[in-house]
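Researcher: Here's a chain I'd like modeled. Treat it as a single chain, no partners, no ligands.
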Amino acid sequence: MSCDWGTSSFRLRLISAKNLEIIEETTLKQGIADTFKMWNQGPKNGLERLDFYLDIIAKEIRTLEKRIGYSLENFPLIISGMASSTIGMVDLPYKNLPFSTSGKDLEKLVIEASTYPKQNVLIISGVRTENDVIRGEETKLVGCAADIDNGAHVFIFPGTHPKHVFVKNKHAFDFKTYMTGEFFDLLSTESILSVSVKKNESFEKDGCLQSFERGVHESRNSNLLHSCFLVRTNQLFRKYSEEENYFYLSGLLIGAELNSLPVTGQNITIVANHSLGKQYGAALNVLNTARKATISTLDADDSLIKGQWEIYKSL
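Model: Modeled as a single isolated chain. Structure tokens:
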């Protein structure tokens, strides 16, 4: 079984070991942050912190069992994400860089099966540099980097806090975290710019792609703090619709993030869901004239499942 327990969400999946396809899954909006708050403030029913978290997992395992109609006793459970953090199930140390893309040298904890739950549990910890950390992306990296060559590669993991992981000789030697997604959410919902944009899921609709690309172009040549105010004037002067302006702002921020990539040619892999993957791919195409990079995209969920499986097999 595969568990991805992030800061704001929980997802448990039953996976076929034969082809790594999803058989059944259950999700909760109860992420690690809310669970930790419950542990601190609510009734613990006599449970220690680890058992409190395992109790939540066990309930979701029973949900899966009801759906599939058979017992999951003795099925191994692999957990990555924030479960190994200071607010998670257990506080595991970070692995210091570098680490192998095989995942064999990552920090892990195995909890032997007991009466409750009735599964062996493998918890995978994160990775750190001198001033940065990741939890979860290291597992996805293992899933998408197993077959790469010894050359230089950059793996981009979009999200609330996107990560750029730099790999050479099949070892991750550096990474950087960006606040892109969080800044976008704050600017588009809490700032003065919120009245000038309207959320639109259709990235390629009408002029949205063009306004996004314009935002990426602007990110190369102007101060970001000034360019963000143009989102306001775009609406005042009717240059863009609110939906187009939404993607103009997205282009500005994603462009600012990607401008930090090395200028020379690299193998760049975007590891993302469909929507964000399209935006990052479009932004890289705009910026790629000088870089001459080879760009590819992989599904984030597939990479997570494969990474968990590879790490489990390395035990």
